[in-house]
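Hi, here's the filled form for the chain we discussed.

Project: internal
Contact: R.S.
Residues: 310
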Amino acid sequence: MTVHRVAVLVLDGVTPLDLAIPTQIFNARPETPYELTVCALDSQVATTAGFALVAGGDLERVRAADTVIVPGYEPLLRPPDAVLGVLAEARDRGRRVVSICTGAFALAAAGVLDGLHATTHWKHIDELERDFPAVKVDRDVLYVDEGDVLTSAGVCCGIDLCLHLVRRDLGAVVANQIARGLVAAPHRDGGQAQYVPTPVVVAGEASLSGTRGWALQRLEEPLTLRVLARHAGLSQRTFMRRFTEETGTTPLQWLLNARLGKARELLETTDRSVDQVARDCGLGTAANLRLHFRRTLDTTPTAYRRTFTH
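And the returned structure, exactly as it came back:
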């Protein structure tokens, strides 16, 4: 595989968890082409946790990268001009530029987000909208994909975004393998709510994860809201409310995302026809599968298979 160079550009006050996410996901593996370097303006960088870290690369390594990722940092001061310049240059050269959490403020300050949709941690969303009016701020999403510019919401949403990038680059099978290693959800759609005010579970209540797991084993079946609610032992109204509180999305949208995920794996790992894949993942017909692939991935099942068949 052609080497894909990933530069994680850390700023003073970097959040350690935000930094750990891309370094874990884009770390070198036999099944991936990624070559990762942690970079900084100065070799030693302070973190929000009170310790310093030593970066292995400088801004020249950022200029040589195919993907540049800026983790979150605080306080949200304007980064040095040299940092802003290298981010703007990466964007101008068509490199992929990514932020996790408050890293969006660095991209915005560099002009990378001008005219684009973007997001950040919900605590700072008003600040991003106020300070950078040229940015189209999306408030209630996990991440935003604008092609070569991508931003994620707070902290753990960076996992969703980085796995989304792996899925774009290498397909669902590899992304799901990495997700399983992280014990992370293999796919959460970027349009899900980033801040889900889940209530405290009271005595006698339980998570709906059992019903979701049951559904994942039966995606080829006609799973309606009534069927799911019956399995959970709840009324449809209560099931809908609790499902949305737990996942940030509706049961039917969750099912569609799960079925598309299964379709992608089947297209990558089997030689089943598009009609058979559509039936096996619960989308019914090849025409329906093509419709959802075009809406969600802007491609066709056949083109997807050509791209990601290993």
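Let me know if anything looks off before we file it.
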